[in-house]
Every structure is written in C-alpha cells, then in structure tokens.
Design a protein that fits this description.
This protein is mainly alpha-helical. The protein has six helices and no strands. Helix 1 packs across helix 4 and helix 5 packs antiparallel against helix 6.
C-alpha cells in the first residue's frame, strides 16, 4: 500500500527499494508491493500507464527503470536551475516550460512550475 502522506514518502520508498540488489528486491515482490507500485506509477507518473508486474523479474526491471527515469529528469531540472542561477533567466524560463510539458514525473513538474513562478 502507498503511504498516507504519498509524494515525498513514496519517492523515499522508491529510493529505499532500488538501493537493494536485484535478488533482494525481487524477493520482496508480493501483492501489497505490486499494489503500491501500481498506485505509485498512477499517481507520480499520470498518463504513463502501468507495465505488467507479473513476476519478480518484471517488478525489478520496472523499479530500475523508474529509478533511472527519475534520475535523468532530476538531472535535467537541476541543469535548468543552474542555468537560471548563471543569469540566463529567459532561456531558463523557456526550458522550464518545455520541461513541464515533457516530464512524466508529477513532483518534478510541480517543482519546475514553482521555479518558473519565482
């Protein structure tokens, strides 16, 4: 099940899960964790669709893909924020708008929107 607080707590749970090796992560796969993963993807990556989670191996692969995707998009946002700090506010604003349109991660889009309106 997803945590009541959602959002940051769920991102932390994703980090904790994906810090494990593949064998340990696969061994955790059960109905509750499958349900949490489906709810997490539906909430944090709206419109993405949930891939099949029918085996421990598929579960591990999906969580690794989520971790890698989050890291890539986080790095992209950090790059834009650093660009803005270097003084190119116009270009950074345009890049933030594109980021918000393209990023699948809800919490990163929200963060980018806050930066855009600062």
């Amino acid at each position: 099940m997803r945590s009541e607080s959602g959002g940051a707590a769920d991102i932390e749970r994703l980090h904790a899960l994906t810090s494990r090796n593949d064998a340990d992560l696969g061994a955790l796969f059960d109905g509750d964790l499958k349900e949490w993963t489906v709810e997490f993807i539906s909430s944090e990556l709206p419109g993405l669709g949930v891939p099949p989670l029918e085996s421990p191996e598929a579960f591990v692969e999906v969580l690794r893909e989520l971790r890698d995707s989050k890291q890539r998009w986080s790095n992209a946002l950090a790059s834009i924020v650093l660009e803005a700090a270097d003084g190119d506010d116009g270009l950074a604003s345009e890049r933030l708008k594109v980021f918000i349109e393209q990023c699948p991660w809800r919490f990163l889009k929200e963060s980018a929107a806050r930066k855009l309106h600062q």
